[in-house]
Amino acid sequence: MSMTFPRARKGRPGYDIDEVEDFLEDARRAYTAENPEVSIVTADSIRTTAFSMRKGGYSTTHVDAALERLEDAFAARERERQIAREGDEAWYAQARGTAQEILDRVVRPTGKRFQRVTFLTIGYSVKDVDAFADRIAGYFQSGAALTPDDIRTVAFRAQRGGYREAQVDYLLDTVTRVMLAVR
Length: 183
Known about the structure:
Elements lengths: L12 E3 L1 H16 L10 H5 L5 E3 L4 H27 L1 H19 L15 E3 L1 H17 L5 H6 L4 E3 L4 H17 L2
Antiparallel strand pairs: 1-2, 3-4
């Protein structure tokens, strides 16, 4: 088997080679498929793909970078196909509507932008998330600098009684989807 990516450093785990190779083969087939409607690989599924960790596996840094490029390529292709079906106006109207929903969420009062978990449960740091939400608001309100990579790589500290992680993660995925939609 040829190695698509470098291996993780000695003594460090990496992504399971067979899982990565199988996923890439599925992605290749999906990208070149005549009928993309039946494909199980999409920009969204690429964003949420996870691999098992194994000693001697692929370098996570290299695979993650490739997945980001692959997500960008699938998003562009999906956008082109959707525009061909619905037209530019409908496509951008949908993206604007989703962007407005995001903006409505991120401009809520500080500390109240997402549901909180109980004090006994760990969530995302309210301070960290609110600060990043302000950056998202700046992007949508005034075009402040923010990239899909900024969204993909943001990390929040843990906090008891913090924001519910699933809600924050969903919003981040939606922001990425909108950003890729209007590139």
